[in-house]
Design goal:
This protein is an alpha/beta fold. About 55% of the residues lie in helices and about 15% in strands. Helix 1 crosses helix 6 and helix 3 packs parallel to helix 4. It is elongated, with a radius of gyration of 27 Å. The chain starts with a strand and ends with a helix.
């Protein structure tokens, strides 16, 4: 069984990164060994943060594997630091693997550039010339190639490979390791990637269901609790995850959603009851009329009394 070394970042969802590389390489009959460059904090909603491993740690991982297992094929993915890039370049020059596949991870799912200009420049100058096969989305080519296009670069732009660049590059590595020519490996890898992971095979987040449960909870408790942590605890998730879900599904923060619900209820009380402003303030969980008035004016631009007068006047017109 042929061995392939993958050098890249982690992906907690296993849709890409080192976890996907291992899965894909194994499914094609090769054995995957790995060195991790970055640990990501992510879920089905995207990447929240990175922990880039020190260059010495990356060097240690690669040397431990290369000295012992001697993989002839190497696949490289996420590199975010110049010193880590230099380590990888030095090791490629020293150990001279037979075939190097490079699949740059340039942008996040929402389009943010993940690499600094310095890293991109060093990749262009030092890493690309050492690679046998480079896979880049056509719309990202200028980010990493500049005005030059090397013969080893394969630009991906067809719909069949949308979301499957990682699978394509891992498959190229596996087929080349098995003895296929570059041309045959590319053809087989394209077919493999086009089949891809079906939606039911991907991890499914609970975001939309959680959002609906959150909105229901807010409707039940907004008068007595405006604390986001309270709702996160009720839903048994972290406040960070609740915020991610609300931004993705509702396009608002949890606090904005709570405040909007509270404001709508207050406005309804002001227009449909004869209770005083102070009574409405206490009914909606405010400790003082001053605090209540400040909150309502921030949300609507009017004091509770002015809002009540203006709306009553509008209804009479």
């Amino acid at each position: 069984m042929k061995t392939i070394l993958t050098i890249t970042g982690s992906d907690s969802t296993s849709v890409s990164g080192v976890q996907a590389d291992i899965r894909i390489i194994a499914s094609l009959g090769a054995y995957a060994v790995s060195a991790i460059t970055s640990v990501t904090v992510q879920n089905t909603l995207g990447i929240q943060s990175f922990y880039d491993l020190p260059a010495a740690t990356v060097r240690g991982q690669v040397e431990a594997i290369v000295n012992d297992v001697e993989p002839e094929v190497v696949k490289i993915g996420m590199i975010r630091r110049c010193d880590v890039l230099q380590v990888i370049v030095d090791l490629l020059v020293k150990y001279k693997p037979r075939f190097v596949v490079y699949d740059p991870i340039l942008r996040s799912a929402n389009g943010d550039l993940l690499l600094s200009p310095d890293v991109l420049a060093q990749i262009r100058q030092q890493l690309l010339p050492l690679c046998s096969f480079v896979v880049i989305r056509r719309n990202e080519a200028s980010d990493i190639l500049g005005p030059d296009v090397l013969s080893t670069v394969h630009l991906i732009d067809d719909a069949a490979l949308h979301g499957q660049q990682n699978a394509f590059s891992s498959a190229v590595a596996a087929y080349v390791a098995a003895g296929d020519s570059v041309e045959e490996a590319e053809r087989k890898a394209r077919d493999f990637a086009a089949r891809g992971l079906q939606p039911k095979q991907r991890p499914q987040g609970v975001g939309e269901k959680l959002f609906n449960r959150f909105v229901t909870l807010v409707g039940d408790h907004y008068r007595t609790n405006s604390d986001v942590a309270f709702y996160a605890d009720c839903l048994n998730v972290s406040a960070t995850y609740l915020a991610q879900v609300c931004h993705r599904v509702g396009r608002l923060s949890p606090k904005n959603i709570i405040d909007r619900q509270k404001t709508r209820a207050i406005a309804n009380d002001l227009l449909t009851t004869d209770r005083t402003v102070q009574e409405i303030a206490f009914a909606n969980g405010f400790s003082s009329q001053a605090h209540f008035s400040k909150f309502f004016k921030k949300q609507t631009g009017l004091s509770p009394s002015d809002y009540r007068r203006q709306e009553h006047k509008n209804q009479q017109l």
